[in-house]
Amino acid sequence: MSFNETDVQNALKNLIDPNTRKDFVSGKSVKNIVVSGSDVSLDILLGYPAMSVWGEIKAMVEAHLKSALPGVGRVSASVSSKVVPHAVQRGVKLVEGVKNIIAVASGKGGVGKSTTAVNLALALAAEGARVGVLDADIYGPSQPTMLGITGQPESADGKNLQPMMSHGLQAMSIGFLIDADTPMIWRGPMVTQALDQLLHQTKWDNLDYLVVDLPPGTGDIQLSLAQNVPVTGAVIVTTPQDIALLDARKGLKMFEKVGIKIVGIVENMSTHICTQCGHEEHIFGAGGGEKMCADYNTEFLGGLPLDIRIREQADSGTPTVVADPDGAIAKVYKQIARRIAVKVADMAQDHSAVFPKIVVQST
Amino acid sequence: MSEQATEIKLHQQSSMLEITFSDDECFELPYEFLRVYSPSADVSGHGPGQEVLQLGKKNVGVSGVVPAGSYALQINFDDGHHTGLYTWEYLYKLGKNQTALWQDYLARLEVAGGSRESLR
Known about the structure:
Helix content of chain A is 34%, strand content 22%. Chain A is an alpha/beta fold. In chain A, helix 3 packs across helix 11 and helix 5 (188-200) crosses helix 6 (220-228).
């Protein structure tokens, strides 16, 4: 029995990508179907970085086609990823060298935004993406410590800064430019200007994702980010207790008000595992993050335990995803990162929220 | 999520801002109307009851508009006022209630004995 490209397409319509939960055809992943005789070859181009599951998807697609197409000979699928740049609102200038900007935010301080941001960035990089981290916390930069970076960034042209490199990430922080114990005693306008410079005057090199580690709150930095920066989406980090959730809700509401999409919520310090006896306990309460997601119709991206290793590894400059890449915690970070990447890829295809056309007429 | 603006036209001759929303609603908002209902704290105050009645804006022009992120529009008026950020939600509300709001403005103007005409 013979078959053609359409049959191959149709067969793939019944195969669901476990990451996007959509079939490969409507996800626009299937390219270059070639049928020669009874042999089939095709490319699967994923919109999210997923180096660790390429093999799995290849095997899945090949097995599916073998069973769906009777009489098929050799089937060869080649799987790769290509992150597409997100459409930005008109009037906001694109950041050069950056395809997508993901803001990591929370209402409350101390919930683990920076730790989460750096681990998610590393997890995206581990899947083969080009990732940068921008530390937007001008008053309390944490990324230099967490990435173990010392020294100052260089400037080739005397105007723009080269990002610092660590664990394969490109990074920029006000912490690189000042002494560790120098406080930034600045009012709002200075801070927003500094953020603007860190973002636009860093020579980001062809990034798929720029993860912006925001300070807590809903003030100057968050607002100028919303107004002047083409943010693809925001990830909210919270801990499960009511007092943190209260402020996380405000953070989420703020992004809604300024038209930035919410990618989802990460619950940090979900449970504590006793280092003595191994007992797992919800010391900050259970189900807070999930409940908030249900209330606001957002995705629960995942929960992380309150584990001493996460803290120790981040403090020593090698965050968990690189310190213990195959461990259980790194796995959770990678899973969350993949969910974010899939969501972001979806957003890139959705052009409903682009900025309106503005016309000036002499009528 | 509220309606998104899809197109904005500035009619400079007739002093009118034409705005179309994603649900195909289209409103024509005169510059004077937008100016006297600016959401800026200079005009709307910091809460209900703190509004400052605007006078003499009949011939106000618009020198330009600047988008604020993807949620609002900053309108630069030629009388120097530029601190109002008009969110899509607010512009939609102005469009929907244009007649009532305008009558309300005229009534307040009369009570205060003010005029739409500029003193220039």
